[in-house]
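Narrative summary of target 7.
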Amino acid sequence: MSKLSDKHLLGIKNLTRADIDLIFQTADNFKDVINRPIKKVPSLRDITIANIFFENSTRTRLSFELAEKRLSADVVNFSSSSSSVKKGETLLDTVNNILAMKVDMVVMRHGSPGAPHFLAKHIDANIVNAGDGTHEHPTQALLDTYSIRERLGTVEGKKVAIIGDILHSRVAMSNIFALQKMGAEVMVCGPNTLLPKHIDELGLQVELDVRKALEWCDVANVLRIQLERQQIKYFPSLREYALYYGINKQLLDSLSKQITIMHPGPINRGVELSSDVADSEHAIILDQVENGVAVRMAVLYLLAGIGDITN
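Modeled conformation, tokenized:
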């Protein structure tokens, strides 16, 4: 059977275009599975997966857990808030203790950029990066890109604007890498204070005017303001941000064409998106959630390198 080019999924940078195509083709099969009456397959019934989350998460953690259970894997959930990490245990000791219980794969979210890469050098289990600091969030980028492919038929040649807090977003960086590998044109848009220095060196367009970005793009992937990662104030107030960068129905209706709206969640309604946009026919936000399970099933299945999708 086909495999990915790496035994881990640490970031989009590590994937080839062939890897992404394989993930999408496999996700197509799993999407059929999760939409049939019996939504479970025995593909990973001999595999034990530990979900190790050192940061709070709702969507990503539930999506991974559901994907694992749909594949019939044994699942162990670990939360740092109720663990020996509070007593001073190191990351490596924590994971080695979990692996001593014969865990085959680790899905990890950590607040420090590079934490999954550090682990990959020290342990034998497959590692899936579920978000490391402000660095990368590869499965979110994969499901976003997959959702564009599903909505528009292809990613190649499409114009995608990533709008909002680019500076603090691991989703933005992974999306940029994934979209460019799949042949899309990428633009970032937001206040100057929320754009990383030298972002233009990534071979993308930079726009400060949200209306111009929306007129340019086929798809707008709108990111939330990550207040929990901001140590200083990057703009005067949320109200002012919403005034200049918030997307509402009136703004969308005034554009010269229809565009697709995406959001990785959670949405700050009334800030980056108004409710009448988030719940409109323009938005594919709930499709992203559904696709997240299929894409994560595909990633786990391909990294394990065993089993049969269709049983």
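Confidence is low (pLDDT under 50) at residues 227-232.
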